[in-house]
Amino acid sequence: MRRPILHVDMDAFFASVEQRDRPELRGRPVIVGAGPHERGVVSTCSYEARRFGVHSAMPSREAFRLCPQGVFLHPDMERYMAASAKVFEIFDRYTPLVQGLSCDEAFLDVSGAEKLFGDSVSIARRVRADIARELRLTASVGVAPNKFLAKVASDLHKPDGLTVVPDAPDEIRAFLAPLPVGRIFGVGKATGEALAALGIRSIGDLQRADAAALARRLGARAAAELRALAFGIDSREVETEREEKSISREHTFPVDTADRAFVLETLLELASDVSAQVRAAGKWAATAHLKLRTDDFRTITRQRPFDAPSQDDFAFRDAARALFEANPATRPVRLVGFGTSGFSDSRPEPEPTLFGPAEPDGRVAKRESLSRAMDGIRARLGADAVRLATAAARPG
Length: 396
Description:
This protein folds into three domains: about 1-165, Alpha-Beta Plaits (2-Layer Sandwich), CATH 3.30.70; about 170-230, DNA polymerase, domain 1 (Orthogonal Bundle), CATH 1.10.150.20; about 245-380, Dna Ligase, domain 1. The protein is about 40% helix and about 20% strand. It has helices at about 15-20, 45-50, 60-65, 75-95, 115, 120-135, 145-155, 170-175, 190-195, 205-210, 210-220, 220-230, 260-280, 315-325, 360-380; strands spanning about 5-10, 30-35, 40-45, 70-75, 100, 105-110, 140-145, 160-165, 245-255, 285-295, 300-310, 335-345. The strands form three sheets. The protein has a five-stranded mixed β-sheet. The protein has a four-stranded antiparallel β-sheet with strand order 9-12-10-11, covered by helices on one side. Strand 5 (about 100) and strand 6 (about 105-110) form a beta hairpin.
């Protein structure tokens, strides 16, 4: 059964919000992430910066070398999350079947909305127009019969693009054939080199490849998954659970990396972003989660509880570091992510003692107060006004 899927991806979201809110930045290379002389990475950057070779997850010092005229800004998650909420409100106008992948991208299943709003392409145009008119931001949209194809399509004509994938199997095959094999999610440097050794550089090459030779080189499971995607086959449904059970962020490295210090640095930046999102939501999290995807398609997940439900930068970064240092991954890393779950609306009070109510943990309260103070300073004076050091600073 045809299920028209939209993949909506906001264009350079954090940098675009900065350029929208600060007219003096429009047309300039904006780089959001660590400062130009700090140990840290680029979270996102404007298209003006990308012309210089800057990209997400690049060390900020390298970004400065490539683009010294860039405007480096520390993330202001409170503003970005407020913009994200308005984006998702627009999605909800057209369908209840929305699967958010992050604060700036989502899948929409519009199969039940076409009688109300027109066909899937018309809905895609309306979504993009609403975002542009109401939020003064742009989004790129892929329209396709499944999630994989929609995701591929949304990335083809950025920024502010609309790409429609045909429905017929032979037309899908023709649509995919000229694209580089790296367009398939999970094909990083190591897998790309393994495929190149077989003469496979495009998705069309993969469609024509000998299945047995591919299985010998990559393993049966990875080979089968790749071949299915090469023909545009993806049976995953849009997951419609909207109750927020987790808050997470992840980065896919443009090139698989075996530099554990670089991966850890990226992970700590993600943990800080997640802590800001948790505070902005007014939540405390009980559990921290690590996600690593290696170059051989293996996904490693680990989790550990906080000593007590937490929302401060220090606890999140401590947990991220501990999870990473305990994980057994030795292969190059394709993706790293950090998340939290088990939310409560308040920090639980300590258990009472025989002598009356227990005193709150002063150290935890101090960390939370400091983290909220930093949020407040950034909101009033800008994201660059204060930043938690990467080193393991510990208040109190």
